[in-house]
């Protein structure tokens, strides 16, 4: 099935100038398609809601809702359980093929990150730079990504804390989060209970929330000021964090370059 981004690119030369403007905006802000209402998205794109509806119909959809649902479906993490994945790998019993499939999956995931996060990356950096304090949170399998962001960020900026959950210390940090702070929360399905508690604490004081997560329908992304997305697809029985690390490294590099920080 053709990805909605590919469909837009295919039809782009055939569209009217007004629809091309809406289509171009969608290609660079496709994550917002899944999180914003049609009216809010149209306002950001500088077009009328009716234009978005006509764009969706020109692309072969019944309307904007159908296009939005197609974007969501294209980015939904596979529902296959770890147990069924493990059983499938045992039945496959082909180490050479698995090796090739793993690297192919990493390549696809990184390419999708490149397309989806280009516009949001700079806006995310601006939010972090304007924060009174930055809190970085990632539990379980997301912890390596969170630690990587914290380690590099802390080299240049002292107003940053890592919420790591050691000795149940998340409550100690969430007491300090205020409305002028930024919470960078990292996670993918299945989302940890701890991350949802930290997220709720940040929301309750109206802190700025930046989500690095696996889907626009992720509970971490819903209500976030800005989200960066990474897929976790792969042939292994466990979700892949390679793309998540890639997004984290890209964010840090853009942050260092944009602000000209030096050791």
TrEMBL record:
PROSITE patterns, per the entry: HTH_RPIR, SIS
Keyword Transcription on entry: yes
GO annotation, biological process: carbohydrate derivative metabolic process
SIS domain location: 124-261
MF terms (GO), sorted A to Z: carbohydrate derivative binding; DNA binding; DNA-binding transcription factor activity
Keyword Ligase: no
Residue stretches spanning the membrane: none
Domain HTH rpiR-type: 2-78
Pfam families in the record: HTH_6 (PF01418), SIS (PF01380)
UniProt keyword list: DNA-binding, Transcription, Transcription regulation
SUPFAM superfamilies hit by this protein: Homeodomain-like, SIS domain
Alphabetized PANTHER family for the sequence: GLUCOKINASE, RPIR-FAMILY TRANSCRIPTIONAL REGULATOR
Name of protein: Transcriptional regulator
Species of the source: Shimwellia blattae (strain ATCC 29907 / DSM 4481 / JCM 1650 / NBRC 105725 / CDC 9005-74) (Escherichia blattae)
